[in-house]
Amino acid sequence: MSETPGTTRRRSATRERLLDAARDVLAREGIHGASVEHICEHAGFTRGAFYSNFASKDELVQALFEREFADLMSGIEEAVDPQTYAGLAPGESLGRIMDRFLELRPPDRDFFLLHAEFQLRGLRGDIGGEEFNALWRMVGVRISAVVERVLSDLGLRTSIPVRQLVTILLGTYDAELREALVEDRPLDADLLRVTLPALLLAATEPAD
């Protein structure tokens, strides 16, 4: 028998609540340290509710990092909407895009911790590690396509392979985010709104 719309909505809401709880617990305890019991307790559900939505903790972890990166890409896509930088010069355009992205995706300690956990799983070859590595490569490809699209709108193209440029940009952002979280301070606004766009522009040339 197929589910009714109401049952489907309730199941979806339960699943999202379990993912929200897992996000909190995994960021605090790590993937290996977090238990199904802790996740259920945090979500306010029984183990039965958990296993009616996920076959295992590993399946939940997979679903969580897929959701996290989907949210990340959604924020990036919204930030690079052409209306964000319409009528602005290239440097101003890139700075405005970064401003918009930070409005949509402010520094998030839990996301950073989860990303570190996912990276470790990929490096160790743990269950789900290959899937994480594949997903992260896909994210790199998608961000590269976004960079090329924005630069094309601005009449520019990269003078080095775009994937290499994206690696540099992500690495710089990642390092600054880590330092800001460790030092419990705001992100360096000049680095993100001025230096990163300048770095990007330094690796571009007219598209004609």
UniProtKB/TrEMBL annotation:
The keyword DNA damage does not apply. It comes from the Bacteria. Residues 12-72 form the HTH tetR-type domain. Residues 35-54 bind DNA. Keywords: DNA-binding. This is HTH tetR-type domain-containing protein. It comes from Aeromicrobium halocynthiae.
